[in-house]
Amino acid sequence: MATLAEPQDATTDDAFREEVRAFIAANFADELKGNNNALASVEGPTNETPAQKAWREAVGERGWGTPTWPREYGGGGLTRKQAKILNEELAKANAWNPIGGMGVMMFGPTLLEYGSEEQKHEHIPPICRGEIRWCQGYSEPNAGSDLANLQTFAEDKGDHYVVNGQKTWTSGGQWADKCFCLVRTDRSDKHNGISFLLIDMTSPGVEVRPIRMISGLSPFCETFFTDVKVPKKNLVGAEGQGWTIGKRLLQHERTNISGGGSMARMMGPTVSDIARKYGELDADGKLADPVLRDRIADYEIRWNTFLLTARRAAEESKASGGVSEISSVLKKLGTKLGQERAELTIEIMGLQGLGWEGEGFTEAELAGVRGWLFGKAFTIYGGSTEIQNNIIAKRVLGMLDHQ
Amino acid sequence: MAVLNEEQEMLRDMAREWATNESPVTEFRKMRDSHPDERYLADAWSAMAGMGWAGIIVPEAYGGSDFGWMSVGLVVEELGKTLAASPLIATTLAASAIVLGGSDEQKAKWLPALASGEKVGTLAIDEGAHHAPGKIATTVSGGKLSGTKAFVHEAHGADLFVVAAADGLYVVEKGDGVALSRRELTDQRSHAQVTFDGAAAERLADGGDSLLDDVLDRARILTSCEMLGMAQQVFDVSLDYLKQRVQFNQVLATFQALQHRMADLFADLATMRSAVEAGLEALDSGFGVARAAAIAKATANDVLHRMSREGIQLHGGIGMTDEYDVGFYLKRARVLEASWGSSSQMRDRFASLSGY
């Protein structure tokens, strides 16, 4: 890879911007432009082309895929301002951040907060380089929305645990290297009996079965643990602290799901762009159907207020420190708007927007249909809308439990 | 809440304290029952003016403080919470028209009196029951303005009218050729049909072709601030009520059906606050004002509409009584929704501004 100055050497924002430009010019191949596989997060890893691999490695080496994470664990060590410059320059160059997944979005920030030094040095650098894929071992057949009801048990055997149980809805389980997992270490206490454990997916006794979804995709799995040995060093925090750590991770998950991460990428063009392309226009270039035009404007205004709210939450949380308590509001609104967008798009496109496979449909049209169906999961996973409503009512508004 | 600077925080705290202590809803009730001609309490307006609120968006050279739109918006929001009746919005908007479109002489002539609160100003735009800035029949000939404006806010206390005519905005002072006919609306504030019959008028010629639109966008955003305060208050009192009221041996707040409705309203309120604050930020930065105004007013209309309906329903029968305040918010809400652009008008404007 190209050798350039370390980011610390950039003394001013302008110099840093120049440095980023030079880096992109040296490492981002022309053939990659517009070639970001937006559905990778639901379809799983595609075979990387050599150019994609080179780009991921170059970004990973700099830590720029996780720009604000500490340098000592492989992050970029950049200031927020520099990270913003980096994003701006990537967008200008029609490039993207190739480092992603649950490790970056959910597990990494949580481990940085709760993990031991040894755990951070072991697990964070491969995440920053995009080498290791993490999956989430939370939900179980009888512990979905009632997550604390989980029964997967980790029995203390001195220097290790032996884990038995079943997880479900393990996103990307079939191609994950490791799993961050909530397990029960004490059967007598619902919340304080839960621990946060890291499990190697190649361990003997781990079995993964993909679940076929209505979208035709299989991004979720059932995961079975049968007498799986997990060393004690893989326990994050104290035994019994898993519920606290796990909830913190869910705040990151909610922020990410709603904040336009995978969802926004899957959305692509705006609804009005699609309407201009597929809908009938009048002589003035307005949409000919006034009712549809009104509904699209209504949708786009609400989408704007959502983006403004996400921005406001970020600014307020930056000013006050900590993750905003508004994350449940963002999760609830963002996922609903994502689904509305897909429904509106199909309506605008008519039957052309409902192709399943084969001829007569563009790749984007077919992807849109799969995305519409997959998107029904947005309001279910990561804490369903109903669970977010409970969180808002109880934790934010102080409404009481039924006596 | 937007991240505020120290001055803005002080201003907001001062407004909150004043509204809570000196102008609670009982003061609005007192005004309603005594119905002074101008439909606000003169002492309260003097107090507001004395605190400099009428001059917040007026440049220092003309007697204002030039603290900006975010600042005046914070004050208006706090006043909205207690339904404080005043011509603050109307006067601020009239002043903004003169700031944007007045000549140096015109600014020197009118702004200091508006900024100090000595004179009350207002906008006289629409000529029918619906907001329709594209349909202005009022004309001016030889410096004399003639036309009829329906439903002018704060007309009875106004000394100065900023009037839309077919060829631009004019300033008309009350006096010869200006006649008011009261139009009592459900919010029981001052509204009037104002008939101008050869009234002396001065054109605001320096604001360019978009002056009317620019002033209306300010009206939309500032009105949304009052609506935000109202929505916040209805939400807060409804939540308090649910936490106290016992039915079926349970506090209402424990029922999930009610918890989820409150969560929905809380989310709506969050988006409303974002939209309104973004409108104020747009005004202060001068960037993207028209779109931001359409977003703010459409959102404020829709959320306050829902909130004011739910406010009654969540209170049950008690919410229907005149003794309870929540009905006042419903009645004011509909008047503000119909002013300066309905939701469907704002969506039409948003779509046009977005090129579809």
What's the topology here?
The complex is a heterodimer of chains A (403) and B (356).
Chain A: H1 13-27, H2 40-43, H3 50-62, H4 80-92, H5 102-114, H6 117-128, E1 134-137, E2 153-156, E3 160-167, E4 178-184, E5 194-200, E6 206-211, E7 220-231, E8 235-236, H7 242-258, H8 262-267, H9 271-278, H10 290-320, H11 327-349, H12 363-374, H13 385-396
Parallel strand pairs in A: 1-4
Antiparallel strand pairs in A: 2-3, 3-7, 4-5, 5-8, 6-7
Chain B: H1 6-22, H2 25-34, H3 42-50, H4 69-81, H5 88-101, H6 104-116, E1 121-124, E2 139-141, E3 144-153, E4 160-165, E5 168-173, E6 178-182, E7 191-203, H7 211-244, E8 246-247, E9 250-251, H8 256-285, H9 289-315, H10 326-338, H11 343-353
Parallel strand pairs in B: 1-4
Antiparallel strand pairs in B: 2-3, 3-7, 4-5, 5-7, 6-7, 8-9
Helix pairs in contact in B: 1-4, 4-7, 5-6, 5-7, 7-8, 7-9, 7-10, 8-9, 9-10, 9-11
Characterise this structure.
The complex is a heterodimer of chains A (403) and B (356). Chain A is of the alpha+beta class and 403 residues long. Helix content of chain A is 44%, strand content 12%. In chain A, helix 11 (327-349) crosses helix 12. The longest helix of chain A has 31 residues, at 290-320. Residues 1-7, 38-43 and 260-266 of chain A have low confidence and may be disordered. By secondary structure, chain B is of the alpha+beta class. In chain B, the strands form 2 sheets. In chain B, strands 1, 2, 3, 4, 5, 6 and 7 form a 7-stranded mixed sheet that branches. In chain B, strand 2 (139-141) and strand 3 form a beta hairpin. In chain B, helix 7 runs parallel beside helix 9 (289-315).
